[in-house]
Records
---
Amino acid sequence: MAPSSGEALNVAPRPVFWEELDFLGLDKLGWTYPHSEAPLLWACDRRYFYKGELVLEVSGGDLFENHSFSHISPQNITLSPIDIESLRVANEDSLFLLEHEAMEFIDTEYRKYKAVEKAKQVNPDIDFQQLAENLSKKQKTQYAVVKEDCDSFDVMPIDEMQAKGKSAVLKSKIDFFVCSFSGGKDSQVILDLVTRVIPEKDLVVIYSDTGYELPPSLELYEEVKEFYHKQYPELRFFTSKNKQPLMYYWDKMGAPSRVLRWCCSIMKSAPLAVLLKELNGGEKQPSAILFDGVRAEESVNRAGRSRIGKNAKHNNIINISPILDWNATETYLYILLKGLPFNKAYRQGFSRVGCVICPYSSKWSENIASKIYPDSINPFIDAIRVSLEDAKTAGVENYIKIGKWKERAGGRTVKCESALTFVEEGVDFKAVIKSPREDVFQWFNILGETKCQSTASETTGVLNYKRNLYKYRISSLGDNSFGVEVYGTNNDVVFISHLKKVLYKSTYCIHCEVCEVECPTGALKVSPYVSIDTTKCVHCLKCIDFDGKGCMSASSVNISTGDNRTKMQSTKSGINRYNDGMGLREAWLKKYFSNHVNFFNDDSHGLNPRYQIPPFINWMREAGILEETNKSISEVGELLRTHFATDSNAVWEIIFINLTENSEVAKWYFSEVPYGKNFTKQELEIMIQKSYPDLKDRTLKNPLNSLLNTFKESPLGDDVPVGVPTTVARKPGIIRKAHNDLSLVATAYSLYRYAEKTGRYSLTVSEFYNPEQKEGIVRQFGIERDAFEQNLRSLEQDNNHVLRSELKMGLDNIILREDLKSEDILKLLL
Ligand code: SF4
Ligand code: SF4
């Protein structure tokens, strides 16, 4: 089936049809092939294979320029269509297993949630969940509701349930089982699988029309409706679409980019949630299971996702991805072998059929779109051109050609009259708003109850935020500008962050509806203007906590005047790689050190291979224990392993030093979180959000949770107190405490790592205690000066003479040996 020329292939093969060959102009270069329904070739990216041999390689091509051929042979090749029947024979067994595993998974999830309804129907007088809760309390062991055979239900201890191989009926009531359809091959497969499992009356299919749709996707949707209605006449199809045209948002927010990707939220997920709310009567956001065609192979971000994502994009929506592990070839095969409707765009050469223009689209797909669908893509290209010209950007055409617009991270090219400036954020809070688009007082309601009185030029009042009363004053400064003052904020980072988000919303709101669908009670309406029903608002703040600025529009216009924050760079391999919330656990490390040779070769470690092994490998690499490129133990790892049994705390100290160098979240923590102060998890979330303003709160919760989990599950929490878990007023938190028992080996290792980084081997004690210092031993461990100097004296007297220190007569010099590396310190002192 797939190419077998021995080429190293990094991408799954895709079928190639005559339409793509015509587009490439091969019919005019002597190639002969029929206009068959079946594909003619297979391609991996832009390398085309016929009967296993590489026959063509295409390069170049973008919005303005044509492609060229890097390899073409032979010029007069004659192609015959791929024999679908032989394909079927060769693949039907493996495909059968794949599709039935996915269907079983869909069925299990459907039944789990559907059972909640059934439990109520079977015996409306028995509240099984309440019964389970009462028994759990009384018996002091966890009980669960379990579905038995013949539609009956039972309540039993979880241990017993697991021993019987049963699973618990979930508590959440689900209002809709939804299949999301986008016109792409993956959503085509998921639609087919889901309709084969879930009764048609229980399912709704939602097509998200983003306003960027490729024409063949719209045509396919009509064909798909007809195709499935013939089989399932009661299956309901709906189209979700934002109330405003796409260009309205381009105008107000600028073109979406890889950093400011507002389009998916505003044009796709929010309209889908709004539609569900309307279908549910319009009052409250319903709960839904959304089956999607997400596949791990598609992107690095998706690779770490699990098959079930609760509240991944919106509260109340559980995303289920049954074909997460399928590769592209498998989805193509499923469609071809089942004879399902197929998006014509794939036949034309698009490898992905998302939107006609996208910050993630390749130059190649832009090339095809510009040639075949110029009327669809050109209005967007023109809009980008106009905004760049208005912003006096140099070299506009080249900027567009190389896709530089896709990297936009700020609002420089967006015209916006409104502006927000933060003036003070300490004892009191002060800000100035110019030309606000919405009523500040309306948005204040989400923070708590407010009372106010107004004169012609100002409004004063009191805000009750979490049972603390804050006086505020909003005064007119003329020229449609307003001063906002809130007194007694006392550096409360959580309150100040919420205040700022409310002001961002008031200043920049363009009624996109993204925050409205986050509201669980139906209190918030944003269209045609913002209103908050104070009788329904429970001040949960879900309408501001979904985004770093609490507002899609503010984030895209990205004005942060006076917002003095440490901005840290985020990369794909950086802070947003921890998409699991799991940390480096002592129990796992012990297992690894006791069986490191075979650890990854068998499953005796007991870790879940899908959810626990990948984050464990990441952490182990960042801890310096595993090699960067494979799963072998590193030289440092071997030294730590042999020493672990005799002094595990010193090993954890070295691990922490390595993490502060290699792990972006640990680096952030050790350089930004001060010592001796208790921080709640919520405060840490706000602090990390400030450091990474371009990333969403949700994205940042994962790395933070992973780090907190490391502190909880390892000696780094208590014995080496770099992150001691605390509870204040029933809120979990963390405090960094001075670690004065730091081992000599960790002291020297940290100094040598610092020297390697700075290129200086003559250091001073004071430089580590400089309040501006963001690196080094004192930031890492908070060690007090006396303890540090004592360690330096001991190291000087050690037989290995790894350093000299001059600590008398007002001197505080540390002289390291330039012939030693940090690894040598471990060899000498461990
Ligand atoms: S999301 Fe929460 S805070 Fe916002 S309006 Fe709804 S109930 Fe109020
Ligand atoms: S406040 Fe809400 S509705 Fe208004 S632009 Fe921001 S996210 Fe959209």
Note: Confidence is low (pLDDT under 50) at residues 1-9, 560-573.
---
Amino acid sequence: MAETTRCGFVALIGAPNVGKSTLINALVGAKVAIVSHKVQTTRALLRGIATAGDAQLIFIDTPGIFAPRRRLDRAMVTNAWTGAHDADIVGVLIDAKRGLDEETGAIFEKVRELGQPKLLLINKVDLVDKPALLALAKAANERVSFAATFMISALTGDGAADVKEWLAAHAPAGPWHYPEDEITDAPMRQLAAEITREKLYLRLHQELPYQSTVETDQWKELKDGSTRIEQTIYVERESQRKIVLGKGGATIKAIGAEARREIADMIEAPVHLFLFVKVRERWGDDPERYRGMGLEFPKE
Ligand SMILES: Nc1nc2c(ncn2[C@@H]2O[C@H](COP(=O)(O)OP(=O)(O)OP(=O)(O)O)[C@@H](O)[C@H]2O)c(=O)[nH]1
Ligand SMILES: [Mg+2]
């Protein structure tokens, strides 16, 4: 068996918001990574696992790469490059509409130094005309030597099967790393916290810049088959806490209801979700919070 199987680690990297997490979900065929229209949604590395023929493909979702300013930014960007360095193949996503802007150019400079085969994935092709796409593919390939270029729409799933097929053919030979039916390596507690963070982002994208984080504090399977989950949403200021709670607690209630529904779907059991909101000034400088997110705490 081991002689015929293949197994490849594929990191997906790119600027914030280009659609890396959306693509992971399309490739895996299930939602494993949270997605939002805000930049810097993904924080830690998350693996989504797919199979294609005799190949197991382990996709690594990474935080968007940008010029970091704050401590949390630095942790995220370092994390993204770590994901790229550890992979067998690197998929570089660009946003077809944004094209080769300065941020993408800076990423290309560093991508060039990576030794692994690199794939160019031009995403969001549903938003642009074909001639523009061809020009973009040409310009990108002049700057980095990509092993192949794919035009895809992670949102509609267009082109995802071709990407998978290419990766399956180019993954190194070897035994599978995960059981056949596994779709992610992230623990349920972490996925559940991410789901709540996604609902928070989707509901409060204007009011709440991304200074919030969610942790699962308690996870208890009850005798009646339901699961009791307690989570804490950390914000940095009292004013943000008020926003998350909303008038008469309406906002937190709505976030809780949406998160509860999705978590229940994921674990296929009824869920009682209790959300708490705590102000933790400068949680972005608190090592304890980084552990919860699966990030290294940068010294400065
Ligand atoms: N029109 C269109 N929108 C897309 C496509 N792929 C992703 N998006 C949207 O782009 C936004 C960002 O998607 P994400 O998957 O969260 O992007 P990301 O690269 O993981 O972002 P970060 O984690 O913040 O770095 C979301 O609103 C997606 O719905 C696509 O193919 N077409
Ligand atoms: Mg993401």
Note: The radius of gyration is 20 Å.
